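Before a colleague's protein record goes any further, I have to sign it off. My question to you is simply how this chain folds and whether the tokens agree. I do not need a full report, just your reasoning and any doubts. This is what I was given:
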Amino acid sequence: MKQQQSECGLCCREDRWLLHSLRHRGSYRKLCTNCVLNNHQGLFCPICLQVFDDDPPPPHLRLMCLRCPSISHLSCVSSSSAANFTCPPCSNPHFSFFSVNHGRSNDKDTRFIDKDSANALVAAAKIAAASMTKAATLARVEAERRVKEAAFAKKRAREALERLLYLGAKEKEKDSKFKPSVAVTEQKVKSRRTGSNRVHKNGVTSEGDD
């Protein structure tokens, strides 16, 4: 169970420390600090690790990596590498934003991080928090949309039921008006037949007497 809790949902390393919960590519995952930063280039400066809360620096105060969407402060990049700038992860394939150092060689339970790793941890935590806030907002909007759709569907169903009841009542009213006229017509026909039979009988009797 502890191994599953310490396993990154992206790099699948089981020795990752302090996983961040966030929404990544349409699903909720727990990622390590290094994977959070490597998969959210452009949201922070890869050198000073400052997260861009709203917008990245203006064009005249920033440099973009030639190999990825990473954006760095112009003041964080040396003038000698500004012309062909590549961010630290692109410059070094073994680069890692976050690393945990152990204490003494015989003390495996003691861990500590340096200042750069601490800054990386804070940056990843901010990005994860922003991701979850955005996901919560989208979930609330989606829930409100579904509530409105359900209310509209309920209204349409009620209107359809009322229409059905109205048509049923009209049909019954029509039948009630039609049945008495049919009964009167049948009664008239029956009366005529009865009268005709009586006349016929009287006529036959008269012939017999003559």
Notes: The longest helix spans residues 115-209. The first strand starts at residue 20 and ends at 24.
